[in-house]
């Protein structure tokens, strides 16, 4: 067979040739804008040309600090297709971490949304590698800024050529993108994506038993384009000619519901907290959600109660998936097999609440106390994965040897596997609760609590215990209408029949909000610290 290289230039040029009339809908601070893929491709060529004029060479890193919108999409292709490396920077990291990763990646140019300029102004003195700042804005004029030298994105595009030829000298194994993990401990770790990895991962998003993304879809990635490439959806959607809806900055559940309704979105993707928010909005007001064929949810466990509410109350199919920055991210997806569709409703929801089976091309093993675990849904072990879109190292980081061993990525996630090969994430290794030498899954208790009708969010963490080493404590946020009306006893009554006695939390604490990471996951480290001081005081 021929060895034609799998590079990203073929993705954008395919959209340009075959889907010239299809649209990208982009919400920016000034409203909704519509572009055809033909226009996007021309603008992408202009941006690639501008970067070359600014001195960007093959292999250089170009950073982006931006929301989900058309200019960010252009950068998604212009940077790798000019041979450089797209470094998407998580805008919700701490200022120290932002400065750290820009410096560590040695970014040469930064593309920044106008409203995010202060994030960079604050640490400009530490950014010795950055040679130019490009501001992405709808305004004709550049905003006041201390950044220098600074360029206006649209002015640069006007001065560049739409006929610009993308770099031809790209090997499929060349780096195309990079993203740092949202570290819960230490500094963020960089993951570099190759052209080949991105192409094959995009292909996997199109498989019928995966997300089945196709030309007929209208896809709205809510997951930020600064978090694992918005799960690769912008790449795949462009390649397939899928209509893209990019929800822009500072969206609310109401804005998302309105976009789904007005743009007739068929598939959307985000973390569970986004969908809990949308569910709340749908309970307040009725919207026409009939276009949706699927909500793709990952990044943290999707509670069964939430899946049920979407599917049963709102008739919206739910796709639960698992992955991580290191896995591009799609690795596992909960698509039921034909004979599983015939099981009882409860059994089906139980399966959908699991993360699912490995997508084609990937391999896994699950290592427990005594080697590989049995596929019995009970034995727990750490998940290790390998495959063509799984990272093989961290970028210039000594943590590499801990996570990447013998050709496998050790995920740090503890899982069980049932007889059908369905994975269930039991916990992060560091979040499991070790009580009297036995493991308690915080995720299991959280999911049951979140299935209770009065509960909005629940996070369970370990607190130190003299006799048992660790015991679980549950932190619960009630839905607004139930605040002050629900007792701990009521919640214990709901939990008790569902768990062994020793799994029940030692305490249930009501909170106004659960601290979250930069990508909307429960921040258990902070919660553990907050609980320590709360328990000492009380
Ligand atoms: P990140 O690299 O920020 O995307 O985080 C990856 C981590 O999120 C994984 O290692 C898991 O711990 C967690 N995660 C991702 N998807 C799921 C899921 N569907 N259920 C439970 N945990 C998940």
From TrEMBL:
Residues 17-395 form the AMP-dependent synthetase/ligase domain. Keywords: ATP-binding, Fatty acid metabolism, Ligase, Lipid metabolism, Nucleotide-binding. GO terms for molecular function: ATP binding; ligase activity. Pfam families: AMP-binding, AMP-binding_C. One of its GO terms (biological process) is fatty acid metabolic process. Residues 445-521 form the AMP-binding enzyme C-terminal domain. It comes from the Bacteria. The keyword Lipid metabolism applies. NCBIfam families: PRK06187.1 (NF004837). Belongs to the ATP-dependent AMP-binding enzyme family. PANTHER family: ACYL-ACTIVATING ENZYME (PTHR43859), BUTANOATE--COA LIGASE AAE1-RELATED (PTHR43859:SF4). This is Long-chain fatty acid--CoA ligase.
